[in-house]
Amino acid sequence: MTPTLTVGVLALQGAFYEHIILLKEAASQLQEKKVRQWDILEVRTAEELQRCNALIIPGGESTTVSLVASRSNLLEPLRDFVKVHRKPTWGTCAGLILLAESANRIKKGGQELIGGLDVRVNRNYFGRQTESFEADLNLPFLSEHSCPHDEPFRGIFVRAPVVEKILLPVTGEQTEEADRDGMVVAPEKDDGPEGQEPWPVETMATLPGRSKRLVEKTEASALNEEVGDIIAVRQRNVFGTSFHPELTSDARIHVWWLRQVLESMPATAVGRDL
User: Looking at the DSSP assignment, which residues form a beta bridge with residue 156?
Assistant: First the structure.
């Protein structure tokens, strides 16, 4: 009998149902290749979280999700899931904010972070709801598992954050970030054996940034050459995207991520043919 992997979607608020639809589509594509069986679960309690092998934290209102998780006694179990048990976790938009070790433009006491990604996130970097936009994205990481990547991925950005800075990986709290004004950091959590080197953050995708757009508008040659805004990162078991793949009908990133989940599982627990 093929063992089942349970993938949870945090269902406190936001676009959790849209993720479930694409997860089921991605799982069906993998099942056609006889990879394994998948169980997709809405997560609202610590007991449901405990059943999961992997988790998606969807887009929505990060402050609301944090508040509801706190009142539901889910924040500490979520931190354990991500930073102690190191189970695969993917956050989109608001989920990226919650998974950051540091976030700015947040009132002190206004929001708690889960952590897991040694990055500083700038909330609502691209503007308000009325400034939401779509863009074709080049995502080379999709080629890791032979996912079709010749066609660009249509990224949807809704009050989207951006990774403002990749931080030096540390064990424990990002204390230098905590000393900065207007910054909230994730609390320290036991995140590995003593003496183990922290994993670096990988930049997985960028979007042509504001400096290039300003050059095009103003012909101001003094502006810096384009470096791009960081919109996707990965660090060990944690993946984060500024945009909303779940608001499209394109399941390629979900297929890629489920394969990442498979790779993280012990070979004895996974019936797979990657």
Answer: 134
pLDDT at position 226? 52
Give pLDDT tens digits for 181-196. Answer: 778 888 887 655 555 6
How many other CB atoms sit within 10 Å of the CB of residue 205? 23
Distance CA 34, CA 110 (A): 46
**What residues are labeled active site?**
93, 244, 246
How confident is residue 136, by pLDDT bands cut at 50, 70 and 90?
very high
pLDDT digits (tens, 9 = 90+) for 93-108: 999 999 999 998 665 5
Q: Kindly state the average pLDDT of the residues 146-166.
A: 84
Dihedral-angle region of residue 233 (phi above 0 means left; psi in -120 to 50 means alpha; beta otherwise): beta
CA distance 145 to 95: 24
Which pLDDT score, from 0 to 100, does residue 23 have? 97
